Protein backbone atom coordinates (compact mmCIF):
# COMPACT_ATOMS: atom_id res chain seq x y z
CA UNK A 1 0.00 0.00 0.00
CA UNK A 2 1.63 3.26 -1.15
CA UNK A 3 1.97 6.17 1.26
CA UNK A 4 1.26 9.71 0.10
CA UNK A 5 2.73 12.83 1.66
CA UNK A 6 0.70 16.01 2.05
CA UNK A 7 1.84 19.57 2.72
CA UNK A 8 -1.11 21.69 3.78
CA UNK A 9 -0.20 25.39 3.89
CA UNK A 10 -1.34 28.97 3.75
CA UNK A 11 0.51 32.09 2.63
CA UNK A 12 -0.51 35.75 2.60
CA UNK A 13 -1.62 36.98 -0.80
CA UNK A 14 1.01 39.70 -0.43
CA UNK A 15 3.57 37.21 -1.79
CA UNK A 16 2.48 38.50 -5.23
CA UNK A 17 2.25 42.13 -6.36
CA UNK A 18 -1.38 41.84 -7.44
CA UNK A 19 -2.51 40.46 -4.07
CA UNK A 20 -4.93 38.15 -5.89
CA UNK A 21 -5.48 34.63 -4.53
CA UNK A 22 -5.26 33.04 -7.98
CA UNK A 23 -1.89 34.69 -8.60
CA UNK A 24 -0.67 33.65 -5.15
CA UNK A 25 -1.77 30.08 -5.87
CA UNK A 26 0.19 30.16 -9.15
CA UNK A 27 3.24 31.46 -7.27
CA UNK A 28 3.05 28.52 -4.88
CA UNK A 29 2.55 26.11 -7.77
CA UNK A 30 5.71 27.46 -9.45
CA UNK A 31 7.74 25.60 -6.79
CA UNK A 32 6.79 22.24 -8.27
CA UNK A 33 10.04 20.28 -8.69
CA UNK A 34 8.80 17.06 -10.34
CA UNK A 35 5.78 15.25 -11.73
CA UNK A 36 5.56 13.35 -8.41
CA UNK A 37 4.02 16.35 -6.66
CA UNK A 38 0.87 18.31 -7.48
CA UNK A 39 -0.85 21.27 -5.85
CA UNK A 40 -4.54 21.10 -4.90
CA UNK A 41 -6.72 24.10 -4.02
CA UNK A 42 -7.89 23.95 -0.41
CA UNK A 43 -10.85 26.16 0.37
CA UNK A 44 -11.31 27.35 3.94
CA UNK A 45 -14.58 29.02 5.03
CA UNK A 46 -14.69 32.23 7.05
CA UNK A 47 -15.13 31.31 10.70
CA UNK A 48 -16.09 33.55 13.60
CA UNK A 49 -12.72 34.80 14.79
CA UNK A 50 -13.46 35.83 18.37
CA UNK A 51 -10.71 37.18 20.61
CA UNK A 52 -6.96 36.73 20.21
CA UNK A 53 -6.73 34.92 23.56
CA UNK A 54 -9.38 32.45 22.41
CA UNK A 55 -7.50 31.77 19.17
CA UNK A 56 -4.24 31.12 21.05
CA UNK A 57 -6.02 28.64 23.32
CA UNK A 58 -7.70 26.96 20.36
CA UNK A 59 -4.37 26.64 18.53
CA UNK A 60 -3.09 24.47 21.38
CA UNK A 61 -6.37 22.55 21.66
CA UNK A 62 -6.42 21.87 17.91
CA UNK A 63 -2.83 20.61 17.95
CA UNK A 64 -3.77 18.03 20.58
CA UNK A 65 -6.96 17.09 18.73
CA UNK A 66 -5.02 16.72 15.47
CA UNK A 67 -2.66 14.18 17.09
CA UNK A 68 -5.53 12.33 18.80
CA UNK A 69 -7.51 12.08 15.56
CA UNK A 70 -4.52 10.77 13.65
CA UNK A 71 -3.96 8.13 16.36
CA UNK A 72 -7.63 7.09 16.16
CA UNK A 73 -7.41 6.86 12.36
CA UNK A 74 -4.30 4.69 12.67
CA UNK A 75 -6.12 2.42 15.11
CA UNK A 76 -9.06 2.04 12.71
CA UNK A 77 -6.63 1.23 9.89
CA UNK A 78 -4.88 -1.34 12.11
CA UNK A 79 -8.23 -2.98 12.86
CA UNK A 80 -8.94 -3.26 9.12
CA UNK A 81 -5.47 -4.76 8.63
CA UNK A 82 -6.16 -7.33 11.34
CA UNK A 83 -9.66 -8.09 10.02
CA UNK A 84 -8.29 -8.83 6.54
CA UNK A 85 -5.10 -10.57 7.76
CA UNK A 86 -2.91 -8.00 6.01
CA UNK A 87 -4.59 -8.37 2.58
CA UNK A 88 -3.59 -5.02 1.04
CA UNK A 89 -6.26 -5.10 -1.69
CA UNK A 90 -9.12 -5.69 0.76
CA UNK A 91 -7.69 -3.09 3.16
CA UNK A 92 -7.50 -0.45 0.39
CA UNK A 93 -11.06 -1.22 -0.69
CA UNK A 94 -12.29 -0.42 2.82
CA UNK A 95 -10.02 2.52 3.74
CA UNK A 96 -12.24 5.07 2.04
CA UNK A 97 -13.46 8.53 3.03
CA UNK A 98 -17.03 9.17 1.91
CA UNK A 99 -16.56 6.22 -0.48
CA UNK A 100 -13.41 7.80 -1.98
CA UNK A 101 -9.66 7.29 -1.51
CA UNK A 102 -8.26 9.88 0.92
CA UNK A 103 -6.56 11.92 -1.82
CA UNK A 104 -9.78 12.16 -3.85
CA UNK A 105 -11.70 13.24 -0.76
CA UNK A 106 -9.13 15.93 0.00
CA UNK A 107 -9.15 17.10 -3.62
CA UNK A 108 -12.92 17.66 -3.55
CA UNK A 109 -13.08 18.72 0.11
CA UNK A 110 -15.70 21.19 1.21
CA UNK A 111 -16.48 22.09 4.79
CA UNK A 112 -19.43 20.13 6.20
CA UNK A 113 -21.70 23.02 7.13
CA UNK A 114 -24.46 20.72 8.38
CA UNK A 115 -22.38 18.97 11.07
CA UNK A 116 -20.06 21.87 11.87
CA UNK A 117 -21.91 25.15 11.35
CA UNK A 118 -19.42 27.91 10.55
CA UNK A 119 -21.53 30.59 12.25
CA UNK A 120 -20.80 28.96 15.60
CA UNK A 121 -17.76 30.05 17.64
CA UNK A 122 -14.59 28.05 16.93
CA UNK A 123 -14.44 26.57 20.48
CA UNK A 124 -17.94 25.12 19.93
CA UNK A 125 -16.90 23.52 16.63
CA UNK A 126 -13.77 22.10 18.25
CA UNK A 127 -15.88 20.68 21.10
CA UNK A 128 -18.23 18.95 18.62
CA UNK A 129 -15.29 17.46 16.71
CA UNK A 130 -13.58 16.32 19.90
CA UNK A 131 -16.71 14.58 21.19
CA UNK A 132 -17.32 12.87 17.84
CA UNK A 133 -13.70 11.67 17.51
CA UNK A 134 -13.51 10.35 21.07
CA UNK A 135 -16.80 8.47 20.65
CA UNK A 136 -15.68 6.84 17.38
CA UNK A 137 -12.32 5.90 18.84
CA UNK A 138 -13.86 4.32 21.94
CA UNK A 139 -16.48 2.43 19.92
CA UNK A 140 -13.88 0.95 17.57
CA UNK A 141 -11.56 -0.07 20.43
CA UNK A 142 -14.43 -1.65 22.38
CA UNK A 143 -15.81 -3.60 19.43
CA UNK A 144 -12.36 -4.78 18.36
CA UNK A 145 -11.55 -5.87 21.91
CA UNK A 146 -14.74 -7.96 22.03
CA UNK A 147 -13.89 -9.50 18.65
CA UNK A 148 -10.35 -10.33 19.76
CA UNK A 149 -11.65 -11.95 22.95
CA UNK A 150 -14.10 -14.18 21.06
CA UNK A 151 -11.50 -14.97 18.39
CA UNK A 152 -8.97 -15.94 21.06
CA UNK A 153 -11.54 -18.21 22.75
CA UNK A 154 -12.30 -19.86 19.40
CA UNK A 155 -8.61 -20.43 18.68
CA UNK A 156 -8.20 -22.02 22.12
CA UNK A 157 -11.11 -24.38 21.43
CA UNK A 158 -9.73 -25.25 18.00
CA UNK A 159 -6.23 -25.89 19.38
CA UNK A 160 -7.72 -28.25 21.97
CA UNK A 161 -9.17 -30.35 19.15
CA UNK A 162 -6.20 -30.16 16.79
CA UNK A 163 -3.14 -30.66 18.98
CA UNK A 164 -1.35 -33.91 19.77
CA UNK A 165 -2.39 -36.39 22.43
CA UNK A 166 -0.39 -34.61 25.12
CA UNK A 167 -2.53 -31.45 24.87
CA UNK A 168 -5.64 -31.98 22.75
CA UNK A 169 -9.12 -32.74 24.00
CA UNK A 170 -9.72 -36.47 24.41
CA UNK A 171 -13.51 -36.23 24.34
CA UNK A 172 -13.81 -37.71 20.84
CA UNK A 173 -11.38 -40.56 21.64
CA UNK A 174 -12.39 -41.86 25.05
CA UNK A 175 -15.04 -44.54 25.55
CA UNK A 176 -16.70 -45.93 28.68
CA UNK A 177 -14.71 -49.16 28.22
CA UNK A 178 -11.45 -47.24 28.80
CA UNK A 179 -12.36 -46.49 32.39
CA UNK A 180 -12.48 -48.84 35.35
CA UNK A 181 -15.30 -48.07 37.76
CA UNK A 182 -14.40 -49.33 41.24
CA UNK A 183 -14.44 -48.09 44.79
CA UNK A 184 -10.65 -48.38 45.09
CA UNK A 185 -9.28 -48.47 41.54
CA UNK A 186 -9.14 -45.90 38.74
CA UNK A 187 -7.72 -45.60 35.25
CA UNK A 188 -4.86 -43.13 34.81
CA UNK A 189 -4.26 -41.75 31.30
CA UNK A 190 -0.66 -41.11 30.24
CA UNK A 191 0.59 -39.66 26.92
CA UNK A 192 3.99 -41.16 26.12
CA UNK A 193 6.35 -39.83 23.40
CA UNK A 194 6.66 -42.49 20.71
CA UNK A 195 10.44 -42.92 21.10
CA UNK A 196 9.83 -43.81 24.79
CA UNK A 197 7.17 -46.47 24.20
CA UNK A 198 9.36 -49.52 24.95
CA UNK A 199 10.86 -47.90 28.03
CA UNK A 200 7.40 -47.03 29.35
CA UNK A 201 5.97 -50.51 28.77
CA UNK A 202 8.89 -52.14 30.55
CA UNK A 203 8.90 -49.81 33.57
CA UNK A 204 5.38 -48.48 34.08
CA UNK A 205 4.66 -50.98 36.89
CA UNK A 206 7.49 -49.43 38.96
CA UNK A 207 6.64 -45.79 38.34
CA UNK A 208 4.84 -45.68 41.71
CA UNK A 209 3.37 -48.00 44.27
CA UNK A 210 0.05 -49.77 43.95
CA UNK A 211 -0.08 -49.98 40.14
CA UNK A 212 -2.02 -53.02 38.98
CA UNK A 213 0.43 -55.35 37.13
CA UNK A 214 -0.13 -55.91 33.40
CA UNK A 215 -2.98 -53.37 33.41
CA UNK A 216 -1.58 -51.09 30.69
CA UNK A 217 -3.51 -50.74 27.43
CA UNK A 218 -3.21 -48.53 24.37
CA UNK A 219 -6.07 -46.13 23.66
CA UNK A 220 -4.86 -44.07 20.70
CA UNK A 221 -1.76 -42.73 18.96
CA UNK A 222 -0.70 -39.88 16.68
CA UNK A 223 2.64 -39.09 14.98
CA UNK A 224 4.12 -37.85 18.28
CA UNK A 225 2.45 -39.58 21.23
CA UNK A 226 0.74 -42.78 22.32
CA UNK A 227 -2.06 -42.56 24.85
CA UNK A 228 -2.01 -45.38 27.41
CA UNK A 229 -4.38 -46.30 30.20
CA UNK A 230 -2.99 -47.72 33.45
CA UNK A 231 -5.01 -49.07 36.38
CA UNK A 232 -3.87 -47.75 39.77
CA UNK A 233 -5.28 -47.53 43.27
CA UNK A 234 -7.09 -44.19 43.64
CA UNK A 235 -5.04 -43.16 46.67
CA UNK A 236 -1.85 -43.40 44.60
CA UNK A 237 -3.10 -41.79 41.36
CA UNK A 238 -1.54 -38.40 42.26
CA UNK A 239 1.81 -40.08 42.99
CA UNK A 240 1.70 -41.82 39.59
CA UNK A 241 1.08 -38.50 37.84
CA UNK A 242 4.04 -36.93 39.64
CA UNK A 243 6.38 -39.82 38.77
CA UNK A 244 5.19 -39.83 35.17
CA UNK A 245 6.18 -36.17 34.82
CA UNK A 246 9.62 -36.93 36.21
CA UNK A 247 10.10 -39.37 33.32
CA UNK A 248 8.78 -36.75 30.85
CA UNK A 249 5.53 -38.57 30.26
CA UNK A 250 2.37 -36.46 30.17
CA UNK A 251 -0.42 -37.49 32.57
CA UNK A 252 -3.86 -36.50 31.26
CA UNK A 253 -6.20 -35.76 34.13
CA UNK A 254 -9.53 -36.39 32.44
CA UNK A 255 -12.85 -37.36 33.98
CA UNK A 256 -14.99 -39.27 31.52
CA UNK A 257 -18.20 -37.63 30.42
CA UNK A 258 -20.22 -39.34 27.71
CA UNK A 259 -21.58 -35.96 26.55
CA UNK A 260 -18.20 -34.19 26.51
CA UNK A 261 -17.65 -34.52 22.76
CA UNK A 262 -21.10 -33.17 21.87
CA UNK A 263 -20.68 -30.33 24.36
CA UNK A 264 -17.27 -29.37 22.92
CA UNK A 265 -18.57 -29.44 19.35
CA UNK A 266 -21.53 -27.27 20.33
CA UNK A 267 -19.25 -24.84 22.19
CA UNK A 268 -16.90 -24.57 19.19
CA UNK A 269 -19.78 -24.03 16.76
CA UNK A 270 -21.22 -21.32 19.00
CA UNK A 271 -17.82 -19.61 19.22
CA UNK A 272 -17.45 -19.76 15.43
CA UNK A 273 -20.86 -18.16 14.92
CA UNK A 274 -20.13 -15.47 17.48
CA UNK A 275 -16.71 -14.76 15.91
CA UNK A 276 -18.25 -14.49 12.43
CA UNK A 277 -20.92 -12.10 13.72
CA UNK A 278 -18.41 -9.90 15.52
CA UNK A 279 -16.06 -9.99 12.50
CA UNK A 280 -18.80 -8.41 10.39
CA UNK A 281 -19.73 -5.86 13.06
CA UNK A 282 -16.09 -4.92 13.65
CA UNK A 283 -15.48 -4.54 9.91
CA UNK A 284 -18.49 -2.27 9.46
CA UNK A 285 -17.55 -0.13 12.45
CA UNK A 286 -13.86 0.11 11.48
CA UNK A 287 -14.75 0.98 7.87
CA UNK A 288 -17.29 3.62 8.88
CA UNK A 289 -15.06 4.82 11.69
CA UNK A 290 -12.05 5.26 9.43
CA UNK A 291 -14.14 7.27 6.95
CA UNK A 292 -15.62 9.55 9.61
CA UNK A 293 -12.32 9.96 11.47
CA UNK A 294 -10.43 10.84 8.29
CA UNK A 295 -13.10 13.39 7.36
CA UNK A 296 -12.98 14.84 10.88
CA UNK A 297 -9.17 14.96 10.67
CA UNK A 298 -9.32 17.12 7.53
CA UNK A 299 -11.82 19.42 9.28
CA UNK A 300 -9.46 19.70 12.26
CA UNK A 301 -6.58 20.59 9.97
CA UNK A 302 -8.78 23.14 8.21
CA UNK A 303 -9.42 24.84 11.53
CA UNK A 304 -5.72 24.71 12.38
CA UNK A 305 -4.79 26.44 9.13
CA UNK A 306 -7.43 29.11 9.68
CA UNK A 307 -6.52 29.79 13.32
CA UNK A 308 -2.77 29.84 12.66
CA UNK A 309 -3.24 32.06 9.59
CA UNK A 310 -5.15 34.63 11.65
CA UNK A 311 -2.51 34.53 14.39
CA UNK A 312 0.33 34.70 11.88
CA UNK A 313 -0.93 37.11 9.24
CA UNK A 314 -3.44 39.17 11.21
CA UNK A 315 -6.53 40.99 9.97
CA UNK A 316 -8.07 41.63 7.54
CA UNK A 317 -8.02 38.00 6.38
CA UNK A 318 -6.12 37.84 3.11
CA UNK A 319 -4.36 34.52 2.61
CA UNK A 320 -4.39 31.64 0.14
CA UNK A 321 -4.51 28.01 1.26
CA UNK A 322 -3.50 24.95 -0.76
CA UNK A 323 -2.25 21.39 -0.35
CA UNK A 324 0.69 19.70 -2.04
CA UNK A 325 0.34 15.93 -2.52
CA UNK A 326 2.82 13.38 -3.79
CA UNK A 327 5.79 11.20 -2.92
CA UNK A 328 7.64 12.10 0.29
CA UNK A 329 10.88 13.04 -1.48
CA UNK A 330 9.13 15.34 -3.98
CA UNK A 331 7.07 17.02 -1.26
CA UNK A 332 10.22 17.48 0.82
CA UNK A 333 11.86 19.35 -2.06
CA UNK A 334 8.79 21.56 -2.53
CA UNK A 335 8.77 22.33 1.20
CA UNK A 336 12.46 23.32 1.16
CA UNK A 337 11.95 25.50 -1.92
CA UNK A 338 8.97 27.31 -0.42
CA UNK A 339 10.69 27.87 2.92
CA UNK A 340 13.72 29.29 1.15
CA UNK A 341 11.60 31.59 -1.05
CA UNK A 342 9.41 32.86 1.79
CA UNK A 343 11.81 32.72 4.72
CA UNK A 344 11.41 36.46 5.18
CA UNK A 345 7.86 35.84 6.42
CA UNK A 346 9.40 34.27 9.51
CA UNK A 347 10.95 37.59 10.50
CA UNK A 348 13.88 37.36 12.91
CA UNK A 349 13.36 33.62 13.28
CA UNK A 350 15.26 33.09 10.03
CA UNK A 351 18.58 34.28 8.67
CA UNK A 352 21.32 33.26 6.27
CA UNK A 353 24.51 31.30 6.88
CA UNK A 354 27.96 32.23 5.49
CA UNK A 355 27.05 30.69 2.14
CA UNK A 356 23.84 32.69 1.91
CA UNK A 357 21.59 29.69 2.62
CA UNK A 358 18.40 30.30 4.59
CA UNK A 359 18.60 28.80 8.11
CA UNK A 360 16.29 28.80 11.11
CA UNK A 361 17.64 30.35 14.30
CA UNK A 362 17.27 28.00 17.25
CA UNK A 363 17.00 30.46 20.11
CA UNK A 364 14.61 31.41 22.89
CA UNK A 365 12.73 33.90 20.71
CA UNK A 366 11.89 31.20 18.19
CA UNK A 367 10.71 28.93 21.01
CA UNK A 368 8.39 31.74 22.15
CA UNK A 369 7.01 32.10 18.65
CA UNK A 370 6.34 28.38 18.47
CA UNK A 371 4.59 28.45 21.84
CA UNK A 372 2.39 31.36 20.79
CA UNK A 373 1.49 30.04 17.33
CA UNK A 374 1.55 26.74 15.43
CA UNK A 375 -0.02 25.06 18.48
CA UNK A 376 3.39 24.73 20.11
CA UNK A 377 4.93 22.88 17.15
CA UNK A 378 8.12 23.82 15.34
CA UNK A 379 8.05 27.39 14.09
CA UNK A 380 8.07 27.78 10.29
CA UNK A 381 8.14 30.91 8.09
CA UNK A 382 4.51 30.39 7.09
CA UNK A 383 1.60 28.14 8.14
CA UNK A 384 2.32 24.59 7.01
CA UNK A 385 1.48 21.05 8.11
CA UNK A 386 3.25 18.03 6.70
CA UNK A 387 1.53 14.64 7.13
CA UNK A 388 1.28 11.22 5.52
CA UNK A 389 -1.57 8.83 4.76
CA UNK A 390 -1.05 5.21 3.72
Automatic annotation (TrEMBL):
Cellular compartments per GO CC: vacuolar proton-transporting V-type ATPase, V1 domain
Pfam families found in the cross-reference section: V-ATPase_C (PF03223)
GO MF annotation, one: proton-transporting ATPase activity, rotational mechanism
InterPro entries, A to Z: ATPase_V1-cplx_csu (IPR004907), Vac_ATP_synth_c_sf (IPR036132)
Gene3D superfamilies associated with the record: 3.30.70.100, subunit c (vma5p) of the yeast v-atpase, domain 2, Vacuolar atp synthase subunit c, domain 1
Keywords annotated in UniProt: Hydrogen ion transport, Ion transport, Transport
Function: Subunit of the V1 complex of vacuolar(H+)-ATPase (V-ATPase), a multisubunit enzyme composed of a peripheral complex (V1) that hydrolyzes ATP and a membrane integral complex (V0) that translocates protons. V-ATPase is responsible for acidifying and maintaining the pH of intracellular compartments. Subunit C is necessary for the assembly of the catalytic sector of the enzyme and is likely to have a specific function in its catalytic activity. Reversibly leaves the enzyme after glucose depletion, causing the catalytic subcomplex V1 to detach from the V0 section. Subunit of the V1 complex of vacuolar(H+)-ATPase (V-ATPase), a multisubunit enzyme composed of a peripheral complex (V1) that hydrolyzes ATP and a membrane integral complex (V0) that translocates protons. V-ATPase is responsible for acidifying and maintaining the pH of intracellular compartments and in some cell types, is targeted to the plasma membrane, where it is responsible for acidifying the extracellular environment. Subunit C is necessary for the assembly of the catalytic sector of the enzyme and is likely to have a specific function in its catalytic activity.
Family the entry assigns: Belongs to the V-ATPase C subunit family.
Subunit structure comment from the entry: V-ATPase is a heteromultimeric enzyme composed of a peripheral catalytic V1 complex (components A to H) attached to an integral membrane V0 proton pore complex.
Name of the protein in question: V-type proton ATPase subunit C
Species for this entry: Orbilia javanica
Gene name for this UniProt entry: VMA5
